[in-house]
Amino acid sequence: MKNAFTIAGKELATYFVQPVAYVVMTVFMLLAGFFFFELLSYFQIVLQMYAAMQNPQVLEHMNLNQRVIEPLLHNMSIVLVILVPAVTMRSFAEEKRTGTYEFLLTAPVRTGEIVAGKFIAAAAFMLIMIGLAAIFPIILVVFGNPEAGVMVAGYLGLALLSLSFVAVGLFTSSVTQNQIIAAITCFGALLLLYVISWPAQTGSSGWVSDLLRYLSITDHFSQMVTGIIDTRDIVYFFSLIFVALFLTQRSVESARWR
Amino acid sequence: MIEVKHLTKHYGNFVAIRDVSFKAERGSILGFLGPNGAGKTTTMRIITGFMPATSGTVLVDGLDIFSQSLEARRKIGYLPESPPLYVDMRVEAYLRFVAKLRGVPRAKLEDALDHALQVCGLKDMRTRICGQLSKGYRQRVGLAQALIHDPPVLVLDEPTIGLDPRQIHEIRGLIKTLSGDRTVVLSTHILPEVSQICDKVVIVADGQVVLEEKLSEIPAGTTLEQVFLEAISKEGHAGGAEAEETLEEVGAGHA
């Protein structure tokens, strides 16, 4: 495990030395800030409208969690679908192209440790970024009266979602030496995971739609965004991470197969 | 000590090396010689455990590189064909990273780093960024990463390529002093390099070993060029004209 942390430390440092980390974080925070501002202004307009119409029943149902945080989390998850492939695309592909892969695979390090190291680094990066985005609920807590527990569940969902994305990104990067191919296939896989339950929403029932709903990252994420922490959703995210990392390890290890 | 036993490697239908066997003794420098495309790099990649052989095996200090891969890899310092540098890292950070992964204990890390920088002539380059180094210095950093953990076995793939004549002289001197009780295997297509620093020569052509001989056993009056040309032509791998060409190529190493 020591080797995994050595690799993770080096990888994380590289994210910040190459300006990748700063660019990704800036873009993410700018977009998230824009969504937050928009949602909040819209919330305020709607609030004033109903207040003017003297409609207390509706006013009672208006809350910051549903009107601001929930859509914000969904928007941020879509931004991650686009940004995560850009973060993970280089992890293995670049090493293969520059020849450092030859060093990594001939060093006395297990392939599992290599994969774990790269995952820890990318995961830490994502958590730092999502940590920065915690500024939005903090603003709401300071100036408003949202429900904290629901927001915590939502952010936990976003964190698990980002870690699953990272694991998928590592896998697509491990099968190619071309960073663009790594990014595009990762993007495709993530988007598919995002929309895979759409056929199930047309009202058809049966095991196929159940399966599609289970596979869909959105369905599990939405649960957590509404404040429900269900073990089934947690298990889903952890299984996705595990399967993707296992495939990555196999893919790296396959270089040693006869 | 390295024992290479009957290595064969196929890339699809292409046979890169066929039944390659040789032995590198402890405390000696083995020159792995052959024209371009003869299978030198493939052989070295198999010895270091980077890729598997289709058949055959390699013993590194008695450890099988396939079945006891981790232990065997611990004993090897490897300089690949192109130095495996992380271009965004500073020289010292890179070498620290390599040393940690190769299992240098924390207490000895700084000493190992200083020693590697010293012997490779990189003292003034420690804070430079790897990607901004010249070819010669990249090669030196590559050499430093291969020997930072003081390995009993050194595998160097064309260590003097891209260096200027003075650097070539220095690096050759360095490799000679390194041998001590280590096993060194270096590949090259430059004949004088072999006659200057190696104890033993293995010549490959078209993926097959055509000669394995101690330099001291080459009869007096015969030059390595003659031995080399004879070896690669008698197997029928190179005709007259081709041999001439090869001679010109290896002769270029004299300059």
Give helix and strand order of chain B, one letter per element, not per position: EEEHEEHEHHHEHEHEEHH
Strand arrangement in the largest pleated sheet of chain B: 6-7-8-3-9-10
Shape of chain B: globular
Order of helices and strands of chain A: HHHHHHHHHHHHH
Largest sheet of chain B: 6 strands, mixed
CATH superfamily of the largest domain in chain B: P-loop containing nucleotide triphosphate hydrolases
What's the count of strands of chain B?
A: 10
Strand content of chain A: under 5%
Give the low-confidence spans of chain B: 237-243, 251-255
Largest interface: A-B, 25 and 33 residues
How many helices of chain B? The count is 9
SS class of chain A: mainly alpha
Radius of gyration of chain B: 18 Å
Spans where pLDDT lies below 50 across 5 or more residues of chain A: none
Task: Describe the structure in brief.
Chain A has 258 residues and is mainly α. Chain A is built from 13 helices and no strands.
How would you describe the overall organization of this protein?
The complex is a heterodimer of chains A (258) and B (255). Chain A is mostly helical and 258 residues long. Chain A has helices at residues 2-17, 20-52, 56-61, 64-88, 90-98, 100-106, 111-132, 135-143, 148-174, 179-195, 207-215, 217-225, 231-253. Chain A has one domain (2-256). Chain A is built from 13 helices and no strands. Chain A is globular. The mean pLDDT of chain A is 91. Chain B has two domains: 2-75 and 153-254, P-loop containing nucleotide triphosphate hydrolases (Rossmann fold, 3-Layer(aba) Sandwich); 83-151, no CATH class. Chain B has helices at 40-47, 69-74, 91-101, 106-119, 135-147, 165-179, 191-197, 224-234, 240-251, and strands spanning 2-11, 14-24, 29-33, 55-60, 63-64, 76-79, 153-157, 183-188, 200-205, 208-214. In chain B, the strands form two sheets. A six-stranded mixed beta sheet of chain B has the order 6-7-8-3-9-10, with helices on both faces. In chain B, strands 2-1-4-5 form a four-stranded antiparallel beta sheet. Chains A and B meet through helix 1 and helix 6 of A and helix 2 and helix 3 of B.
